[in-house]
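Discussion board: Methods & Data

I've been asked by a reviewer to show the raw model output for two of the constructs in my manuscript, not just the figures. I'm not sure how much to include, so I'm pasting the format here to get opinions. Each protein appears as its amino acid sequence followed by a line of discrete structure tokens. Is this the kind of thing reviewers expect to see in a supplement, or should I convert it first? Here is construct A:
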Amino acid sequence: MIVDLTAPPAITRTSDHRYYLTLPDGQKWGPCPGVTSILDVIDKSGPLMHWASGQTADAAIALHEQGWPELEAIVGREGVKKALMERRNWKRDEAAHVGSAVHAWADDFVKGNLPKVTPAIENRIKAYAEWWENSGWKLRLSEFTVFDTKSEYGGTGDLLCFDREGRTVLADIKTGGKVGRKAYESEVLQLTAYSNAEYISPMGGTTVYPMPQVDRWALLHVTEEGVREIEVNIGDRERVAWYAALALYKWMQATKARL
């Protein structure tokens, strides 16, 4: 293999979440799929259908309160139907915007910056700031990328910290779902994949480190009511499930290429 010793070590990510790795000796890997793309193989139709039907029901109630007959007279029956069906899309986009804003603010905050507060996330970030100050956690990395050369995948994580007992904790920030919810299966496997990767690097950095041993996993559910640490247990069963999802993803990609 010919190696390029002038290339800085890095884990990079494209806009379509494909990952590349360059090591200090110049060896390169990629493009490799991202963890979230791989986990799309998990069937999420049940929860998503329940959520979408709930959004449609909310839209129907709102339209009725605003004068359904008058609206139907203007846009017709198909227009009303489209309005009901589209609600799930703008609610999803609204939730995605809030999630991105909270992630960006939290990344700045734990690095000691004073990020700008927007009204849409004000209550959430106040809750996050209070939680962080009381958590006893100490930052190791915020917004990082990981890469595994053996199984050929990459990913982007939120927090790697020491908790108040000195344990290494890997955490992901989540803003979706109801207060008191449990960890979703895909979120458990997401943390599994990150902690099983070989390498870790600060986002956009030019230093690649071996992935440290993780002692504890958690989701930080950030809502307007506060921040809740959702403990996640990861063992052999979760690792088997992650590698099964990865194998299924690779099989589906290979099958798609043959069609």
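Construct B, same format:
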Amino acid sequence: MRALLPAVLVAGVLLLAGCGGGAAAPSGSESFAGTPLDGRSAPDFTLDDEEGTAVSLAGLRGSRVLLTFVYTHCPDVCPLIVRNLDEAARAVPGTRVVAVSVDAKGDTPAAVREFRSAHRLGAELSYLIGSSAELARVWRDYAVYAAASGGSLVDHSALTMLIDEDGKERVAYPPTFAPADVVHDLRQVAAR
């Protein structure tokens, strides 16, 4: 099994949705607002969006990718995360947002379409869904915890990371990040 992501290990920065975390000191000449990662290759995966179109992480090479794990019935932090990522992506051309579901049962194509509409999410965002087995493989590769906690609620890791144009993991963010911080980091990565 792939070594756990440094972002997950750094004091539980991204342990559960709603938990905070701080930024680590910058590495090298780059000064990131988020927590710098070691630049290892992000594990590839392919999942479908709500229209049934397959989207792969490898297929997004050449774009900066903001990857997160959320669900449509989340009552609090997930909508904030995707709106903030969508805002940051719109501010920096060449950026895509990939939201991977942590709720195979509740994140149906109809639920995703309603969520996208309710939060006015742009075309830069791909909301990916799948079966429990398909999603569990992605969760495992990114050390994401996801488990139903009653009703339509899901306890899950609030992992959000910036992946560069070469598919390398560059920066991780706590659930309470500011869009301006992500825009700063996107520009840092683009300037390299």
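Answer (T.O., handling editor elsewhere):
This is acceptable in a supplement if you add a one-line summary per construct. For B, something like: The mean pLDDT is 87.
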